[in-house]
UniProtKB/TrEMBL annotation:
InterPro entries: Iontro_rcpt_C, Solute-binding_3/MltF_N
All residue ranges annotated as the Ionotropic glutamate receptor C-terminal domain in the record: 43-262
Entry protein name: Amino acid ABC transporter substrate-binding protein
Record Pfam families: SBP_bac_3 (PF00497)
Gene3D superfamilies according to UniProt: Periplasmic binding protein-like II
Signal peptide: 1-23
Highest taxon above the source species: Bacteria
Keywords: Signal
Solute-binding protein family 3/N-terminal domain segment(s): 43-262
Length: 269
């Protein structure tokens, strides 16, 4: 009886040890870093909102739709740095962080500023670009908006969840916000009297005015409280992943303004 019990206990002990060992091996096998997972997959999945030229926008090349922009040039360099291909997921700006948090994308490269609120939802890279924001109005009413007080109770169009929205709320708390998803929609809203003004960065303003000659820049320019545009990565991303991204930014940051100028020629009026 005692020997039989001993054999049963020994067998159970062996089974338990074997199961524990296999589980440990499986667990260790799954402990890949963020970068190792991307390299194993062979593709870097990047989220952006291709509606803010010259940073990211749709371009028709002989009838074939392409996404171009200065941010895409940066994506290409980052993917090359990691020795992987890249895949673009285009979506509305306010859908980017939820997509990152749910694991649908590996990073966001869409001129996104690392605000305090966003830093709760993502890890951010070094800043790679910073511009100034400017109010754009109908050219026929340009003289009306010579002073900030004219915007006090105005209807101002901005991209939803953008830094320009935060700037408007900070400096013009009584203004009526018209939140839209694309920069072209902002221009149309102002041109068609659905908004009094829009707030965008200077390069975007120049492109929108070129496409909509009835609009004009005011002299009302505002810097936001953020450091500038950075790349968003999932919370608790591994150090090697963040290092790879920051290394690429350090290497190519000086070329970013040149890419902006180069991409302007692809933006159609």
């Amino acid at each position: 009886m005692g020997k039989r019990v001993f054999k049963i206990i020994s067998a159970l002990s062996f089974t338990f040890i074997l199961m524990f060992s296999l589980a440990a091996c499986g667990s260790n096998g799954d402990k890949k870093t963020s970068l190792e997972k991307i390299k194993a997959r062979g593709t870097l999945v990047v989220g952006l909102s291709a509606a803010t030229p010259p940073y990211e926008f749709h371009y028709s090349n002989n009838g074939k739709n392409e996404i171009k922009g200065a941010d895409l040039e940066l994506v290409k360099r980052i993917a090359k740095q990691m020795d992987v291909k890249y895949e673009i997921k285009d979506m509305d700006f306010d859908g980017l962080l939820p997509a990152l948090q749910s694991g649908k994308i590996d990073m966001i490269v869409s001129a996104m500023s690392p605000t305090q609120e966003r830093e709760k939802a993502a890890d951010f890279s070094k800043v790679y670009y910073k511009s100034t924001n400017v109010f754009v109005v109908r050219k026929s009413e340009l003289s009306k908006y010579a002073k900030p007080s004219a915007l006090k109770n105005a209807t101002v169009a901005t991209i939803n969840s953008s830094t320009q929205q935060a700037v408007t709320q900070k400096y013009f708390p009584k203004a009526h916000l018209k939140l839209l998803g694309k920069s072209n929609d902002l221009a149309l809203a102002v041109a068609h009297n659905k908004a009094d003004a829009m707030l965008v960065d200077v390069p975007t303003a120049e492109l929108l005015i070129r496409a909509n000659p009835s609009l004009a820049q005011t002299n009302l320019k505002y810097n936001d409280d953020t450091a500038g545009a950075a790349i968003a990565m999932p919370n608790h991303s591994s150090k090697d992943f963040k290092d790879a991204v920051n290394t690429a930014i350090t290497k190519y940051k000086g070329q970013y303004e040149k890419w902006i100028i180069e991409q302007v020629k692809y933006v159609k009026e």
